[in-house]
Amino acid sequence: MSIEGSAEAALATRGIGAQLRLACVDAVRAFGRMSRRSWGWLALYVGLSTALLFGIAAALSTHEGTIGKALLRFVFPEEWHGILDFVLAFALKSQRQQVIANVALFVTLTVVSIVLFWAKEALSRSYERDRAAHAGEPDPKEQWEDHPAWREALDEILWTLIGLAALFATLWVGHGPPDPVRKTIATVLSYLVVFVTTAGNFLAPPMQRRKMTYSHVLVVMARRPLVTLAFGAAMAVPQLVALNVAGQAGLDALATLLIVFSINVVFIAISAVAGTEVGLALLPVARTSTPPRWAVRALGWSIVVAILATGTFIGARLGTAILAKSQVLKCTYRIDWKSFRFDEPKLGGLLKGELGVAGSIEMDITNPTPLPVRIEKNRLVLADDDVIIAESHLAPFEVPPQATSRAKVGLDLTLDAGSFLKGARLDPTRWDITFYIELDEGLEFPIYLRAGP
Predict the structure, then answer these.
(1) Is the pLDDT of residue 76 over 50?
(2) Contact at 8 Å (CB) between 190 and 170?
(3) Which of 8, 60, 105, 443 is deepest in the core (most CB within 10 A)?
């Protein structure tokens, strides 16, 4: 029977056993039907993928200091170049390790798919001809109605945007205060995103050669969910395992990237051939399916655009806040300890072991930037090692550009009397003083004014 099949052929992939066999057994057998031409295309695809990913690995390992520092030097002083780690930690701090690994794999596969989609398509076309010849069927070239190259590239970009929107939504679910239910949901969603996007990337070429777009491919995958998830899992899980093992092995950056990318290349190659086999087997399903109506597509894209726009807005707010506050981070601060002045203490919190004190302190602030520096929402923490002695909020103030000013900063101090019972010393010269500036809601950047001896 022709791979184009009929409704009866579509039913052949409907059962649970048939779907699992197709995704995990028949897909791998495809390599036994490959001609020299297909092996040549596979070698080219592997070579290009290796060159691309290893080039990225070399660039990241060679410039992991210089590229990051070049960017950070524009915004932050030398001693605060760890800001990159701080920002990344804020974005991913509340995500489980599995979610972060899934995001990394998604990024890797997306880069290869967008850059090398044409090589994947050439390999897929060659294998389809091999499959037809092996089955004694006519050359399928007559059945192909290819999209123009620009349309194929656009399709890959649109598919990537759908995956990005799904990842944004997943990260949003997992972000925030510790909540086992939310963390579990985010973890499951991240696996689903990786499995579905991996399957879509490699099942689509045979359908795209029949003038079908990814919206139609999604319908087919929804009609055969076990094939989609089983194939995606078979291709993605080994890469995720390698990513986690390599990440915990304590290797340097280059070695870790080379190991992970090597395994990525192996499974990208397997996925390209095996995915074509599965995609061809699903053509009867595609022929008996109809693409989503325009109203459904419009609704879907509205959701995708809304998620991407929200994520971009949040990222832009964070970036703008960091740039705006970077002038504060470039200043130097010197406290005049003799200028401490305290008002009459507030005794209302004594029953809780807290003593409220209002007062002021003078601070010399040097602003080397051409812009005025404004300190707005903030908090000042006094601690002796890990024991917090007091917290305060400084009244907002401003320092002119390229000048040193002595600012009389208002204090509203809450002293924890119990801290001295926990080991804090009474000597203020031994206390650590950390100034936290709010960059955005829920995001504070620490300035270490003084570390105790």
Answers:
(1) no
(2) yes
(3) 105
302 in a domain, yes or no?
no
CB contact at 8 A, 445 and 396? no
CB 365 within 8 A of CB 327: no
Between CA 46 and CA 269 the distance in angstroms is: 6
| Same-domain check for residues 254 and 135 | yes
Position 297 in a domain: no
Note whether residue 2 is domain-resident. no
pLDDT in tens, 322-360: 666 667 767 787 888 788 776 665 555 544 555 566 777
- Cβ neighbour number for residue 305 with a 10 Å cutoff: 12
- Give the up-direction half-sphere exposure of residue 207: CA atoms within 13 A in the CB hemisphere: 31
- The whole-number average pLDDT for the span 135-150 is 84
- Phi and psi at 362, nearest 5°, equal -100, 140
Judge contact between 1 and 138, C-beta under 8 A.
Answer: no
- pTM beyond 0.90: the answer is no
Number of domains in the chain: 2
- Name the band, by pLDDT with cuts 50, 70 and 90, for residue 80: very low
Per residue in 165-207, pLDDT tens? Answer: 888 888 778 765 566 787 788 888 888 998 999 999 999 999 9
For residue 427, being part of any structural domain is answered with: yes
- How many CB atoms lie under 10 A from the CB of residue 107? 12
Residue for token digits 């971009």? 312
**For residue 279, what are its two tokens?**
């995609």
Which residues constitute the domain of residue 111? 7-291
